[in-house]
Write a structure and sequence with these properties.
Number of strands of chain A: 24
Largest sheet of chain B: none
Number of helices of chain A: 13
Helix content of chain B: over 70%
Strand content of chain B: under 5%
Radius of gyration of chain B: 16 Å
Order of helices and strands of chain B: HHHHHHHHH
Distance between the termini of chain B: 35 Å
Radius of gyration of chain A: 29 Å
Number of strands of chain B: 0
Oligomer: heterodimer
Number of helices of chain B: 9
Largest sheet of chain A: 7 strands, mixed
Largest interface: A-B, 54 and 62 residues
Shape of chain B: globular
Structural class of chain A: alpha+beta
């Protein structure tokens, strides 16, 4: 062995290289940095813009009169009518096709008057103020957006899956902004609401996307334009590259003149065959699977908010402005509370029914499986027969796979009626082709058809392969497949576990207003913020629990970190699947002012239901029905040596005691 | 150099460096990602003459790792049965070296990574760690003693501290 410093460096490098080969970084200038694992999504990002903008077809706006009259209009007409618009290839389809067609030809601005973008006008009643006229407005919103080679979502529902949240809100203002040397259009949004959960999202106050004004004529958005009655539907995800931190997907931006009016797409349209092309908010909610009760509740809340708006306007003219605003707020709040209570009662009844059905189905399935015995199949035919006997056709499969000994990638595959309906790789991205993912039957078929099967093991009860190495074609090098760590959760198990966790969360307490700006940084927590429940609250931090999809998560927020301030990295989030609700312990980092350290323990559901105790040799324990918090002074305990935390869990499945040395 | 070029050139290096600080691939990725995001947001500042963004990201990584990652990892080492993540030594491709690194204090590991992996002169190690030259030597000397006790002493015999 070479024993020079260089050799140590090389050995360090080899070790680090091997240990990090399963993870990768994402260029913040090219991807949505708020969700770095969401690969394969094309966002309106500056670097893409910078590259593509030169080749994309640019929309041209030829002003008829004063260049600044739109933004700082004199009140007669902030007109954007009669402007010419030309795409680089002259066909006027600036955003949907033809990326690169105009590459290098230097066109795009000012040479294509034949394709007008707008027939309407932004008739304004005051300086920098415009009414809702989509015919005039949409071209403005499109101006300067490059063409994207986007992979269409296929439907609103699929686009929602790709996005962190889907919000609706009032657009108060439009403007072009510049950051890090690039230009963006910013929509200043008021009253943003997550259309799926109905939770207000005041943190989504600015939605921004790359749009560079490359025309020689003055930029109509150089100064902000205020609007009345303009509404937006946006499928957005966090992106720290812009002010406000939210960016829409290519297919993720729709505007309308009121929530009940059609919302045409600004850029690309994600509407699927069964979706309305220009949805109202209610139509979008229906397309996203929101219950009729929830749709009605949100509509009532919006109506209440709108009813309050005129009162606010009048309040501007009274001496008692604040009192009127307060009254309007109170009325709106009361209406919303009433609607929420009614909807919640209906939702709880429905949830109870669904939970019971899930439990019943899981029990029936378990009985069927128990009857199969637990002797692991020894041969492929035996295993296949065992699997067929289970009659399981709906399930989720977790596995890792590598080909030819190369870098592997984990995958999660959802199967319904034997067919793959959804699959993601280890980074949360949807593979381009679902047939690259495995089903149990697909694995059986592949093993059966392989030229060589090096080794294979089967799950003892259900019979599915848990690990297999095979060579599909012995005449070809480099096609050897290794599928490993295969775990299967049936849909019935999943539904039962979800219902169980939901019941557990409900026992903790009512949902609380989430720290939205913060949890948005934790990818999954943003998807179901309405379910956040508080485990512990202390002067220096809050600990929450919530369910997100098929995971249950713990999130710790230090209060020293303001929601609007920069993330300091001091907060903690961790998740586990609802089917294997884990025993957890988290160190909550020491907060400098107090010098205290915390250890948060969340027992497993089985333990919670059957009994658990916790004790510690040092520190102070705060124990609730759901969790325990050990408070220690790190500076004091480190010098004396180890101490123990003893956790005793009691379960019919077996008691366990954990003794945790510290120090 | 624009940011994408910098990212392509440095991302893997930074990721490996962060792994040496955290000894955990996922934490390293999160840490390195955060560092790159910070670098991206202030990329314009690096255009001035004399700027060293590669050094800057290492320094930021060191600083961030001292606050968050060290504490999280230390705690995880206390809870082997409650936290399912395997110990670094159980999954390492070079378990001897991983064990040795795992036994180093964070500052010692920083110094080793900068001196022997990044191949920086001692003065630059001190600069990037934000400590004095003497402190770097002290950390490296202690690291050497530990490594010598853990690894084959012959491996370290010729190390120049």
């Amino acid at each position: 062995m070479n024993s020079s410093p260089k050799a140590l460096g090389k050995r360090l490098d080899d070790l680090a290289r091997n240990e990090t080969r399963r993870v990768q970084l994402h260029d913040p200038s090219l991807v949505s940095v708020g969700s770095p694992r969401r690969q394969g999504r094309l966002w309106l990002v500056p670097a893409v813009l910078a590259v593509v903008a030169m080749t994309a077809m640019l929309v041209v706006w030829q002003r008829a009169d004063s260049p600044t009259s739109v933004a700082a209009g004199s009140g007669d007409s902030a007109s954007i009518t009669d402007r010419g618009a030309a795409a680089a290839d002259g066909d006027g389809d600036a955003l949907g096709e033809g990326a690169g067609e105009g590459a290098g030809d230097g066109r795009g601005a000012g040479d294509g008057d034949d394709d007008s973008l707008g027939e309407g006008s932004l008739a304004g009643g005051g300086a920098g103020h415009a009414e809702c006229d989509l015919a005039a407005l949409v071209p403005v919103l499109r101006a300067g957006i490059p063409t994207f080679d986007d992979q269409p979502a296929g439907s609103f529902a699929q686009l929602a899956d790709r996005s962190q949240i889907v919000v609706v809100g009032d657009v108060a203002e439009l403007r072009r902004a510049e950051a890090t040397g690039r230009e963006y259009i910013e929509l200043v949004v008021e009253h943003a609401v997550d259309v799926v959960t109905g939770v207000a999202r005041p943190d989504v106050d600015v939605i921004a996307y790359g749009a560079e004004w490359a025309d020689s004529s003055p930029d109509p958005l150089a100064e902000p334009i205020a609007f009345d009655g303009l509404t937006v539907i946006a499928f957005v995800s966090p992106w720290s590259g812009v002010r406000g931190g939210w960016a829409p997907g290519v297919e993720g931006l729709y505007v309308g003149c009121g929530f009940d009016s059609p919302h045409p797409a600004v850029i690309e349209n994600a509407a699927g065959p069964d979706d309305p092309a220009e949805p109202t908010v209610a139509e979008l909610q229906a397309a996203l699977g929101v219950s009729a009760t929830e749709i009605a509740r949100q509509a009532a809340a919006r109506a209440a908010a709108q009813a309050a708006a005129p009162d606010r306007a009048e309040a501007d003219e009274t001496d008692d402005e604040q009192a009127v605003i307060d009254a309007a707020d109170e009325a709106a709040g009361a209406a919303e509370d009433a609607a929420r209570a009614a909807a919640q009662a209906a939702a709880e009844a429905e949830a109870a029914r669904v939970a019971q059905e899930a439990q019943d189905e899981a029990r029936r399935e378990q009985e069927r499986i128990d009857a199969l015995g637990s002797l692991a199949p020894a041969t492929l035919p035996e295993a296949r027969e065992r699997w067929q006997q289970t009659q399981i056709t709906d399930y989720r499969l977790y596995y890792g796979e590598s080909v030819a000994g190369g870098q592997g990638t984990p995958a999660v595959v959802d199967v319904v009626a034997g067919d793959i309906v959804h699959a993601v790789d280890g980074f949360g991205a949807v593979p381009n082709e679902l047939d690259h993912a495995w089903t149990v039957v697909g694995l059986f078929d592949a093993i059966e058809a392989a030229d060589v099967v090096q080794d294979v093991t089967f799950e003892s009860t259900l019979g599915y392969p848990t690990e297999v190495r095979f060579d599909p074609d012995a005449t070809i090098d480099g096609d050897e497949v290794h599928v490993h760590s295969v775990e299967l959760v049936t849909s019935a198990e999943l539904a039962a576990a979800n219902a169980r966790v939901d019941a557990w969360l409900a026992s903790i307490g009512p949902p609380i207003d989430p720290p939205t700006q913060l949890i948005a940084r934790h990818e999954r927590s943003g998807e179901n913020p309405g379910a956040l429940r508080m485990l512990f609250t202390r002067p220096d931090f809050d600990a929450f629990s919530y369910r997100a999809d098929e995971s249950v998560c713990i999130l710790v927020r230090h209060k020293s970190v303001d929601d609007s301030s920069q993330y300091t990295g001091e907060d903690v989030a961790t998740c586990a699947g609802t089917t294997d609700f884990a025993r957890w312990a988290l160190q909550l980092t020491r907060t400098p002012p107090t010098g205290l350290g915390y250890i948060l323990v969340v027992p497993a559901l089985d333990d919670l239901e059957e009994g658990w105790t916790v004790s510690a040799e040092v520190g102070e324990l705060e124990v609730t029905e759901h969790a325990a918090l050990l408070v220690v002074d790190e500076e004091d305990i480190l010098p004396p040596g180890p101490f123990r935390i003893t956790l005793e869990f009691h379960c019919s499945c077996g008691d366990e005691t954990y003794v945790l040395p510290f120090g | 150099m624009d940011f994408p070029d910098f990212f392509r050139a440095e991302a893997d290096q930074l990721l490996r460096f962060c792994w040496m600080l955290t000894l955990d691939a996922e934490e390293a990725a999160d840490l390195a990602q955060e560092v790159m995001e910070r670098a991206y947001t202030r990329w314009d500042d690096f255009q001035a003459p004399g700027q060293n963004p590669a050094g800057w990201v290492r320094t930021v990584a060191v600083n961030l790792s001292r606050s968050r990652w060290r504490r999280v990892r230390r705690f995880r080492s206390l809870l082997p049965r409650l936290v399912s993540r395997p110990a670094v030594t159980a999954v390492a491709s070079d378990p001897d070296l991983a064990v040795a690194l795992d036994g180093l204090a964070a500052r010692q590991r920083e110094a080793v990574a900068l001196r022997y992996w990044a191949d920086l002169p001692l003065a630059e190690c001190a600069h990037e760690m934000g400590i004095s030259l003497g402190s770097v030597k002290q950390h490296l000397a202690r690291a050497h003693r530990h490594l010598a006790a853990t690894l084959d002493p012959a491996v370290l015999e010729e190390l120049v501290l």
